[in-house]
Write a structure and sequence with these properties.
Blueprint (H helix, E strand, L loop, with lengths): L10 E6 L10 H9 L2 E4 L5 H4 L7 E3 L11 H13 L3 E6 L9 H10 L4 E4 L4 H8 L13 E5 L13 H5 L4 E5 L5 H10 L7 E6 L7 E6 L3 H8 L5 E5 L5 H5 L10
Parallel strand pairs: 1-4, 1-5, 2-3, 2-4, 6-7
Antiparallel strand pairs: 7-10, 8-9, 8-10
């Protein structure tokens, strides 16, 4: 049992910033950003959201594939240190911090170190990114389920925990986050598992950001489409018949027509 005297006087808020458009911040997230003493932010909140935060209170603790990195251990320790100093801390993450955002790990660390915390959900990019590009992740006619998959597992794992064969058998939509770099590998695994090579696929880069890009193709052509357009992380991959819907509506799509 933790003694009351050991409990941090400050509070950490694990806040999801949504897919990047500041208008998609929750009301609570916006209020907490205005009230925070310190904001520890990832690379994934959009530049317009980062720009809302006074420079003197924000700290970049983000990680990016093949780029600069701040260790998770440092971030954990920094949150606890600030809270024990009595600070109100916002730990700001892209999308929702509990969807492949390591929010669960940070929550447990805070609890172990006697830090009061609150979870503030955000609009997940796994749904919002495809949505603004005219791609619903479910559809009554041909997608009664959706599977969310990480394309970037813990590199210390001996074996992958993702069973692409089982995913291919669901008949539903597959949404892959952080999967741009490994696109050739998992599209090949899905084809080898028996998924139709002509299955529609879409890549949505920086969904809702000003520089959003979309690439479309099939399970056998999407890698070339990615390279032709120059899709880079962060991006969401959507695999399934729902990806075809974009072509039916893109002419009238006001917020996601870029490609």
């Amino acid at each position: 049992m933790t003694a009351d005297a050991d409990i941090a006087p400050g509070t950490v808020y694990l806040v999801g910033s949504g897919p990047g458009d500041p208008d998609l911040l929750t009301v609570k997230a916006k209020r907490l950003l205005e009230e925070a003493d310190v904001v520890l932010h990832d690379k994934l909140p959009g530049p317009d959201i980062i720009g809302m935060i006074p420079e003197e209170i924000r700290e970049d603790v983000g990680k990016r594939a093949r780029g600069e990195r701040t260790s998770q251990q440092y971030t954990n320790e920094r949150m606890a240190e600030l809270a024990h100093d009595g600070k109100t801390v916002v730990r700001l993450k892209g999308g929702d911090s509990f969807v492949f955002g390591r929010g669960g790990e940070e929550m447990v660390y805070l609890a172990k170190h006697a830090v009061p915390f609150e979870v503030v959900p955000g609009v997940t990019a796994a749904i919002a990114g495809p949505g603004v590009a005219g791609i619903p992740v479910t559809h009554r006619d041909y997608a009664s389920s959706v599977s969310f998959v990480t394309g970037h597992e813990d590199p210390t794992k001996e074996d992958s925990a993702v069973d692409w064969g089982a995913l291919a058998d669901t008949g539903g939509t597959i949404v892959v986050l952080m999967g741009v770099g490994k696109l050739p590998e998992y599209t090949r695994e899905l084809r080898e598992a028996g998924m139709d090579p002509d299955t529609p696929v879409a890549l949505v880069e920086r969904g809702t950001w000003p520089d959003q890009q979309v690439a479309t193709g099939t399970l056998s052509t999407i890698v070339d489409a990615r390279d032709d357009i120059g899709i880079e992380p962060p991006a969401v991959t959507v695999i399934g018949d729902v990806a075809r819907e974009r072509q039916r509506v893109v002419k009238f799509l006001q917020n996601g027509a870029e490609s």
